Putative gamma-glutamylcyclotransferase (Orrella marina), 194 residues
Amino acid sequence: MIASASIVCIGTGVEPVQVACVSPIDDGVAVSLSDLLPDSLSDFLVVFIEFVQYPELSPTVMSHNVFAYGSLMFPGVMQDLLGHPVQGHAVTLAGWSRHALSFRVYPGAVPAMSTSQIEGVVWQDLSDEDLRILDGFEGDEYLRCQVSLELPAGDTVKAWIYQWKDISLLLGNWDVQRFAANELETFVDVHRGS
């Protein structure tokens, strides 16, 4: 088994906010709190740490949902990466914020106040192999964490999200329309060649 750790912190007069999601943590590995918290949060009080265990990906095919909020929102990008069409729905994820990143055309998302939200796409019925491909695409700049979100039909499902790790690179809001109009084609060409 591997585990994901959600760390919730508060500062004076601040609503509790999840500030880190650490995944995966191998069984039997000692992890200190200082290893989990970003340096910029040293002035915050840790309220609680929630560890959630989930099974490692197995050779058998499992079905996964992935919430995409950046380049992976576009069906053509997903199909190019995975090699097959995927089914998705436009959804809103509460309690997270999406940011432009320094020196990058793609965004990063981080846990935020409960009033924050991100418009995105939930891709459904992805296989273990699809998830491995997405993990490789996102690389070590992101942590894969699990969130709950509501589908258009009203059902609540669990989905993976790729959380940005380096909060020092976060800028303002990321503009989806600007990316689609000005950077998507080049982004696809670059990643198609890699």
